[in-house]
């Protein structure tokens, strides 16, 4: 690529932070709140205008399960966020733990309150542009772009919650990306909401989910009238009065580390939302005949990009054996949810699961070492980019476990920032686990 040399070589510095968290999704919100709660001076940098990531800007319509089918296992700040949202949604069963709907505007405010009450400073509409290092495993500054122009931000410890491991990767961390043999990425989904839905007809009509072989989605696909609807993936939830949220369809070959790729996908996704509305109005007229597209996600629903190589790589065997670890910072029980290639998803029944789902009460641990990139001393990673096998990433990528990982990363960052020479690999894990338990974490 042709290069351009910047004439302006000096930037204003926003320094003095103990911890800087990049990315204000679920992991970033709990990481920032946990670090600030420990007394660390904490800055949270977010590229959009709201916190919450896929549950808010991305319009994912429901939480993945918070329980292991017996008890809630994503606790601490994760449970706080989850329960506070349920309290504000009168149509949701107070005892529900799994596949609970999300009203995104309410969730935005809950995340705002979470970080502000902890004492976090938030920078919205601020994009990471570059990472400066000393060449010896330490980040020295983050370069951002915002209405303030280009700025350098400095801290003792940095927490990468970008989802794509941008901070760690740009600092030189080793990482893997996509399928081992081909590099193929799981397809994306552009979520959307339909308003003015007839609630009675929707709730008492046929189940739309693709697991129901009598779902109208199969009639739509067989009709051939809507060729842009790709497959039978159509998760949906009543998220508010007369409003249904959809996590539907797939967009293939979308790479969230390529701005051109995701830009094209967002425009394609907006067109597809309108097609779904037309199809549902035809095949479920009682429920959707007068519906309209109320909103499309301002974030693309990305399932996979980079995975850092950490001090430990969580393996398929660890998942299958329900392994526990001496340094585990949370538990996880979500199934291995890998969305397949175009051919796999369009076949009868969609992509088949290769690894059996957990039974009631079963879960595995996530070790702290999966959050610590090899070769970087003042960086932690939390969220879907942690160190793990691709199959396991299909499980740990969802919001409940990201909330739990974020809280652990924030606590660890504050602990590392409290010593003269911060080193995330040298954090006292027993002390970290003790603090997590004190804050309500599930660490049996």
TrEMBL record:
<dbReference type="InterPro" id="IPR036188">
    <property type="entry name" value="FAD/NAD-bd_sf"/>
</dbReference>
<dbReference type="GO" id="GO:0016491">
    <property type="term" value="F:oxidoreductase activity"/>
</dbReference>
<keyword id="KW-0408">Iron</keyword>
<keyword id="KW-0560">Oxidoreductase</keyword>
<dbReference type="GO" id="GO:0051539">
    <property type="term" value="F:4 iron, 4 sulfur cluster binding"/>
</dbReference>
<dbReference type="Pfam" id="PF12831">
    <property type="entry name" value="FAD_oxidored"/>
</dbReference>
<keyword id="KW-0004">4Fe-4S</keyword>
<keyword id="KW-0411">Iron-sulfur</keyword>
<dbReference type="GO" id="GO:0046872">
    <property type="term" value="F:metal ion binding"/>
</dbReference>
<dbReference type="InterPro" id="IPR039650">
    <property type="entry name" value="HdrA-like"/>
</dbReference>
<keyword id="KW-0479">Metal-binding</keyword>
<protein>
    <submittedName>
        <fullName>FAD-dependent oxidoreductase</fullName>
    </submittedName>
</protein>
């Amino acid at each position: 690529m042709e290069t351009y040399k910047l004439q302006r070589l000096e930037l204003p510095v926003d320094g003095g932070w103990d911890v800087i968290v990049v990315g204000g999704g679920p992991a970033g919100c709990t990481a920032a709140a946990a670090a600030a709660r420990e007394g660390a001076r904490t800055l949270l940098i977010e590229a959009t205008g709201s916190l919450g990531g896929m549950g808010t800007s991305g319009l994912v319509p429901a939480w993945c399960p918070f329980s292991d089918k017996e008890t809630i296992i994503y606790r601490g700040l994760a449970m706080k966020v989850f329960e506070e949202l349920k309290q504000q949604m009168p149509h949701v069963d107070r005892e529900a733990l799994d596949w609970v709907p999300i009203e995104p505007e309410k969730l935005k405010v809950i995340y705002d309150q979470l970080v502000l009450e902890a004492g976090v400073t938030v920078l919205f509409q601020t994009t990471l542009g570059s990472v400066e290092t000393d060449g010896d495993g330490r980040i020295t500054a983050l370069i951002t772009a915002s209405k303030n122009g280009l700025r350098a931000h400095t801290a003792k410890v940095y927490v990468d919650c970008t989802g794509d491991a941008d901070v760690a990767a740009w600092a030189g961390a080793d990482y893997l990306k996509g399928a081992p043999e081909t590099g193929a990425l799981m397809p994306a989904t552009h979520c959307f909401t339909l308003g003015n839905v007839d609630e009675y007809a929707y709730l008492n009509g046929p189940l739309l989910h693709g697991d129901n072989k009598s779902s109208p989605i199969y009639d739509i696909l067989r009709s051939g009238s809507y060729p842009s609807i790709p497959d039978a993936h159509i998760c949906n939830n009543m998220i508010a009065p007369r409003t249904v949220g959809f996590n539907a369809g797939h967009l293939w070959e979308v790479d969230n580390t390529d701005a051109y790729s995701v830009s094209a996908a967002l425009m394609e996704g907006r067109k597809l939302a309108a097609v779904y509305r037309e199809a549902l109005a035809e095949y479920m007229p009682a429920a959707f005949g007068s519906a309209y597209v109320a909103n499309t996600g301002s974030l693309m629903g990305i399932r996979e990009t980079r995975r850092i190589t950490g001090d430990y790589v969580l393996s398929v065997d660890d998942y299958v054996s329900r392994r526990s670890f001496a340094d585990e910072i949370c538990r996880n029980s979500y199934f291995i949810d890998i969305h397949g290639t175009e051919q796999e998803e369009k076949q009868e029944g969609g992509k088949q699961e290769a690894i059996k789902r957990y039974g009631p009460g079963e879960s595995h641990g996530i070790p702290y070492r999966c959050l610590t990139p090899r070769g970087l001393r003042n960086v932690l990673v939390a969220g879907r980019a942690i160190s793990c096998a691709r199959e396991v990433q299909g499980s740990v990528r969802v919001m409940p476990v990201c909330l739990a990982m974020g809280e652990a990363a924030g606590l660890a960052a504050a602990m590392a920032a409290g010593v003269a020479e911060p080193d995330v690999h040298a954090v006292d894990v027993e002390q970290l686990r003790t603090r997590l338990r004190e804050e309500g974490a599930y660490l049996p």
